[in-house]
């Protein structure tokens, strides 16, 4: 039987990004899911207008507490999480939920694509007791389930993960001491220590934009490092032996200082930002060190499951065409209820980009001879028709393309 999935989206101060995320959720090809939006007043208004599911009013700057509110409102057997500045591929849930056919799998995580819509931000990673993540070796496109490591944990990303609802409740949900940063990593560590297995799913993909927030600008320049410091201190108190705290703190301070210097070099920060940001990090470290243990969490009775409204998308198609003509054809296919990818390829070697636009169309642009994957050569000697077919095959698995292929 297809598991019922509750998709939880937490949103704060980003109503436009939330609207885009909800457009993407409305194109999911998975048959049995509900959407729960936990949001501040502007986000709640957007969610009600979209009319995709239930809305939980929440106006505190604490992503862990907000996710717990989403879990409490969920009626599914599995709870999936995506951030408001992310958009899922149409087959996201189909792939992400598949490993739960194995009753020993308690959590699952997918891969995260960056701003250009092509390259990955994060793939398979593990994490150690300091909270630092390390890349895992690749193994292909199929899901892989991991036993919990002796130390550390298998890392899932908060913007692309799922867990059995009963496991989340048994673990106490997310720890509200983590207002932002390391929130899902702490959950990973507690799940590992409890003996739960985690699956990583390469084809369960979301596009993540790093939208602006109170902590960073749209160019990712930091505005405050307080929460990074606070959550790091809490994480070490929860998971790291005391005699290793000083070394972990020194490594974090050095890493964040290097981050600021990179922004100075790039022109996205000024010299006066350095002492201010480093002070915010130190203030956060001091505050986090004072936060107490995770309190017990009482969950209300599980509510009824509310299936997302129908109709669902009826399939997917690729449209290849330049500028206005291609856009017109793409809109026609979108009006039929299809998931539409528009390939707008110029006779050039420009790198490719892919965006999910306001009409709900996936628009991939770039050169016929240009890179669409970092592993590609800078210049590809290929004909237009062959390149279109190559791109169609590349995105087949994650966007649910129909057998009809190019239109």
What does the model show?
The protein has helices spanning 15-25, 41-50, 63-72, 92-97, 165-170, 183-193, 226-239, 245-266, 273-289, 323-335, 384-399, and strands at residues 5-11, 33-39, 54-57, 78-83, 86-88, 105-113, 120-122, 125-127, 133-135, 144-146, 153-155, 161-164, 197-208, 316-320, 339-346, 353-356, 362-367. The protein is of the alpha/beta class and 407 residues long. It has three domains: 5-208, Spore Coat Polysaccharide Biosynthesis Protein SpsA, Chain A (Alpha-Beta Complex); 226-289, no CATH class; 316-399, no CATH class. Strands 1, 2, 3, 4, 5, 6, 7, 10, 12 and 13 form a ten-stranded mixed β-sheet that branches. A four-stranded mixed β-sheet has the order 14-15-17-16, sandwiched between helices. Strands 9-8-11 form a three-stranded antiparallel β-sheet. Helix 1 packs parallel to helix 2 and helix 8 packs antiparallel against helix 9 (273-289). It starts with a strand and ends in an 8-residue tail after the last helix. Mean pLDDT is 93; it is low at 403-407.
